[in-house]
C-alpha cells in the first residue's frame, strides 16, 4: 500500500481564496475591512517568521493587519495593557498573541485578558469551555485545520476510532474535543500512556502532536489509517550545516501502511494561518452584526 498524500498547502490556498472573497463581501456590507492584530513579544526566530507570514496573508485576504512588537524585556503588565488597548479598538476584530511568550510572562494571564469575541486563536477559557460544551465559539486554528482536512478526505467521521497523541492546550486537547464533536471514539495518548503502538494500531485516524521527530512508526499504523502529522521538528540535514523539517511520524514508514498522510512541510502547517483568517472573518461578521451563512466557510 502507498498512502495518498493530503495536500494541506493546496487546501489552505483554496480556503484563503474563499476567505478573501468573503472579506470583500463583508467590506461592501459593513463599510470597513476585517482587522487582525498580532502581538509578538521578544525575538524568537520562528515566531518572527510566523508573524510576518500572518501579516502578509492578512493583507492578501483584504483585511487590515496591525502588528505590535514588544521587546523580550516587556513586563506581563505591559503585554496585558496592549491587549486591553486592542480589546477596545473598534478596527480590531481579531487578536492573536504569538506563542511562546518569554519565560517571565504568564501565558495564561495574557490570554485570559483577550476579549473572547476577538479571540481568533480560541485560547481563552470562555472559548475553551464553549468547545468542550459543543457551543459556538472560536476554535484553535491548527486543530480546526486538521478537522477540515480529515472531513475533506473521509467525509463523515462518526463512529471512527481516533487517537490524538499529545495533550497540549493548543493542539491535543482541542483536537480531541473536535473529534469527539464529530462522533469519533477518541483516545488521548501522552508520555505516560502504556503500549502506545497497540493503541495507535487500533485507530482509523491518528493525529500526532508530540514534537518528537519520527516518533510514530509506520508499522504501528492500522493498514489504511488516515494520519495527520502536526509535528514541525527541525533536524540536521544530510549535508553538513543544513537542516530540514520533519514531522512526528516516520513518513517513509507510514507511506507503506497508511491510507493517507499529511506531509511536513506542506500539510497541517499552512492550515494554521488559513484558519486564522477564517476565524478573523467570522469575528468581523459577529462584531458588525453582518450575517455569514453557517456553511459559507
Ligand atoms: N498564538 C499562536 N501561537 C502559535 C500558534 C498558534 O496557532 N497561535 N501555532 C504555532 C506556530 N504557527 C503559527 O503561529 C505556525 C506554525 C507552522 C506554520 C507553517 O506553515 N509551517 C510550514 C513550514 C514552515 C517552515 O518552513 O518553517 C509547514 O508545515 O508547511 C504556520 C504557522 C506556534 N505558536
From TrEMBL:
EC code? 1.5.1.5, 3.5.4.9
Concerning InterPro entries, the annotation shows: Aminoacid_DH-like_N_sf, NAD(P)-bd_dom_sf, THF_DH/CycHdrlase, THF_DH/CycHdrlase_cat_dom, THF_DH/CycHdrlase_CS, THF_DH/CycHdrlase_NAD-bd_dom
Tetrahydrofolate dehydrogenase/cyclohydrolase NAD(P)-binding domain: which residues? 140-287
Where in the numbering of this chain does the Tetrahydrofolate dehydrogenase/cyclohydrolase catalytic domain appear?
6-121
Which residues are NADP(+)-binding?
A: 166-168, 232
- Tell me the route in metabolism or biology where this protein functions: One-carbon metabolism; tetrahydrofolate interconversion
Domain of life per record: Bacteria
GO molecular-function annotation terms?
A: methenyltetrahydrofolate cyclohydrolase activity; methylenetetrahydrofolate dehydrogenase (NADP+) activity
Asked if Amino-acid biosynthesis is a keyword of the record, the answer is yes
Describe the family membership recorded for this protein in Swiss-Prot or TrEMBL: Belongs to the tetrahydrofolate dehydrogenase/cyclohydrolase family.
NCBIfam families referenced in this protein's UniProt entry, alphabetically = PRK10792.1 (NF008058), PRK14186.1 (NF010783), PRK14188.1 (NF010785)
For this entry, the protein name equals: Bifunctional protein FolD
Q: Which organism is it from?
A: Flavisphingopyxis soli
